[in-house]
Amino acid sequence: MTTNTLFETLNPPVRLLMGPGPINAYPRVHQAISSALIGQYDPVMTGYMNQVQSLYRGVLETNNKQTMLVDGTARAGIEAVLVSILQPGDKVLIPVIGRFGHLLCEIAQRVGAVVKTIDIEWGEVCPPELVEKAIKEFQPKLLATVQGDTSTTMNQPLAEIGEICQRHGVLFYCDATASIAGNELKMDEWHLDAVSVGLQKCLGGPSGSAPISLSDQCAEVINRRKHVEAGIKAEHHTAGADIRIQSNYFDLAMVMDYWGPERLNHHTEATSMLYAARECARIYLEEGSENVIARHKQAGDAMAMGLKAMGLKLFGNQQYKMNNVVGVYIPDEVDGDKVREELLLCFGIEIGTSFGPLHGKIWRIGTMGFNARQECVLTTLAALESVLLKYKAHIQPGQAVTTAMQYYTV
Ligand SMILES: *Cc1c(COP(=O)(O)O)cnc(C)c1O
């Protein structure tokens, strides 16, 4: 006999999420998610879809008509872009500055693309000269990279790379999930052809929706692969000249038709996540991009300088550090996981561990979205200092919080 249990009523603890994402969502985003559900072709719903397109043009600083949501986490946006652009045998150049650069390679390889990487030491960014040299030698169709790679906390400068891609006729895609809304991103000015992001970093929402935008040229490349699926295909749908996109769910040619005037049925838009994405963008644009980015820089600087004042060592080339996350070396005397556990259980604060070559060496502490605020920075520094003192780490007590507070005195 099987026994069924209902478990307890859902009641997750309230945590302060100060890792590299996910973070605590803005209260207004929680409200938006709990709004009433409506049908996918209700004119109110299609109206919201149009609003979301317009709002994300604002967030990504673009006029691209093809701006929409991919339903899924940020990785869904990345995969949709790569599988829709890259045909088997296409050449893609990928500067790899951290873990998420490897993810781009992995997805491109699964698609059957020919991948060439520029491997950068973790904690540094890719110089544009290396990109230009590699483009001349390799002649790729696409350059794919990551802007803020949270695995290393570095923010790849993109403007010059965009100009190089433009000059050589190479499509330019960037995963800006971790950097958007905390660091500058100018899609059109920097000649980006495709950008994908997620909500759970500086946009201040939950994971589960991936806003993307495609230049006209990029949309055309994708539409050449359009083969409308059986069952909804009509007379006027002529097949594209290029081979069909390997994924159905991530077929951006079909997703564009669902978001476009034809409203051709594809998936059912994830209504609650669209509400969340809409509110994240409204909050960002209402506060103003410059103000939001400045707030992230203030919180990020206060956190980094507080950690330094405690006597801890920061990871990576600080000139290129993302505003919204800092890597800090774990003192030799302490067990990094034990400290994280104690922060969580005694203070309700989560900070991040790290991956690959940095595993066990650094913690990553984020100040993003709703949590890019003085009280979150100060509380985290005070709590970390207490736990480190308990474990007899060789730190400077009494400095971190006052140092961080200086970033907030006017
Ligand atoms: C956090 C992060 C993601 C997140 O992807 P999910 O699929 O939402 O987990 C993607 N890209 C980068 C660069 C990130 O830092």
TrEMBL record:
InterPro entries: Aminotrans_V_dom (IPR000192), PyrdxlP-dep_Trfase (IPR015424), PyrdxlP-dep_Trfase_major (IPR015421), PyrdxlP-dep_Trfase_small (IPR015422), SP_NH2Trfase/AEP_transaminase (IPR024169)
Name listed for the protein in its UniProt record: Alanine--glyoxylate aminotransferase family protein
Residue ranges occupied by any Aminotransferase class V domain in the UniProt entry: 46-339
Pfam families: Aminotran_5 (PF00266)
Domain of life of the source: Bacteria
Entry keyword annotation includes Membrane: no
Keyword Transferase belongs to the record: yes
Membership in a protein family: Belongs to the class-V pyridoxal-phosphate-dependent aminotransferase family.
Sample GO molecular function, one term: transaminase activity
Organism in which the protein naturally occurs: Psychromonas arctica
Cofactor(s) the protein requires to work: pyridoxal 5'-phosphate
